[in-house]
């Protein structure tokens, strides 16, 4: 009795769910074409190529030469002319600057150079004064004529010759101490050199020497 009362599938009333339609149902998709299946791979390859080209352009610098359609068009001739003009202007400016700096440097004397120039000028002036003093014959210079010979009145005769030549302070004397080995005209200072040479020329003496410790500025020692 219990077996007969058990509910089975057939004991329920049939409805629409017990008779489903034929064929596929739900989220089932149909078969895709070969083109649609290959499209993702094609897109990946294109993107990879574009990325590679972009990397190469940035690394090599060629991307700067890339002209976009919306960018202004500039002819190569015009660009080259402008570059040449700018380069010429820059070179001229640098040349002017260099010339100006050079001129300023050449016209500007340092304190050391000015001091050196002043010293040179003073030395030249001193040399000029000494040369002038040496070249002037002073007939008023005191001259002493020493007779170192055995000829009496020989020194006085030379004094007379010098007096006739215009010398106003000439005296004759005898030797004291050592005498030189030959006739000589001695002078003490460089300023008396020209006068001593003139005295020697007047007396026909060729030996003229500078000597210290003289009694008078010029001394003539006669030995012959």
TrEMBL record:
Keyword entries, A-Z: Membrane, Transmembrane, Transmembrane helix
Low complexity bias: start-end ranges: 86-102, 115-131
Transmembrane domains' residue ranges: 38-59
Compositionally biased intervals (Polar residues): 103-114
Pfam families referenced in this protein's UniProt entry, alphabetically: LytR_C (PF13399)
Stretches for region Disordered: 1-24, 69-131
Entry keyword Membrane: yes
Comp. bias (Basic and acidic residues): 1-17
LytR/CpsA/Psr regulator C-terminal domain ranges (all copies): 142-222
InterPro entries reported in the protein's UniProt record: LytR/CpsA/Psr_C (IPR027381)
Protein name per UniProt: LytR C-terminal domain-containing protein
Biological source species: Bifidobacterium catenulatum subsp. kashiwanohense
